[in-house]
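Subject: design request, 141 residues
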C-alpha cells in the first residue's frame, strides 16, 4: 500500500469509530435514564439484575470501540514505518505520525487492547452504574 492508501483507510476507520462512539454515548445515556427510572419505580431485585445485565452492554461496547481506536492508531503507525523501512520516502506528516504514535515495525502488529485512560473511564462509569442500581438512596427529609 502507498502512504495515501494507508491514511485513506485510517480515516475511514476513524469515521466508523466516531459513529460507534456516538452509539456508546446513546447507550450510556439510556442506561443512566433507566437507572433513574428504576429508582423512581422502586424496581424489584430481578428488575435490578436485568438492568445490571443491560448496563454491561455499553461498558463492553465502549471498551471495544476504544480498543479499535487505539488499534487503528498503532497499526497506521506500524504500516507507515513498514513503508519507511522498505525505503519509501515518506511525507513530513507521515513521519510526524510515526513519531507521535511511537509504534514502529520493531514493535510488531498491535494487539486489541484499550489504553489506560479508557479503562479508567469505563471502570468509573461501571461503578456509577452499579452504585446507581444497587445502593439505596437516602430518604428525603
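Subject: RE: design request

Done. Sequence follows.
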Amino acid at each position: 500500500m502507498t502512504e495515501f492508501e494507508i491514511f485513506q483507510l485510517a480515516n475511514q476507520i476513524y469515521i466508523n469509530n466516531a459513529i460507534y462512539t456516538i452509539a456508546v454515548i446513546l447507550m450510556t445515556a439510556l442506561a443512566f435514564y433507566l437507572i433513574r427510572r428504576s429508582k423512581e419505580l422502586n424496581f424489584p431485585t430481578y428488575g435490578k439484575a436485568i438492568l445490571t445485565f443491560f448496563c454491561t452492554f455499553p461498558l463492553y461496547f465502549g471498551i471495544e470501540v476504544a480498543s479499535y481506536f487505539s488499534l487503528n492508531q498503532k497499526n497506521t503507525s506500524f504500516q507507515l514505518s513498514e513503508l519507511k523501512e522498505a525505503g519509501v520516502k515518506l511525507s513530513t506528516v507521515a513521519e510526524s505520525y510515526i513519531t507521535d504514535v511511537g509504534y514502529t515495525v520493531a514493535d510488531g502488529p498491535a494487539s486489541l487492547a484499550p489504553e489506560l485512560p479508557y479503562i479508567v473511564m469505563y471502570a468509573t462509569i461501571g461503578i456509577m452504574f452499579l452504585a446507581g442500581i444497587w445502593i439505596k438512596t437516602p430518604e428525603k427529609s
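The mean pLDDT is 93.
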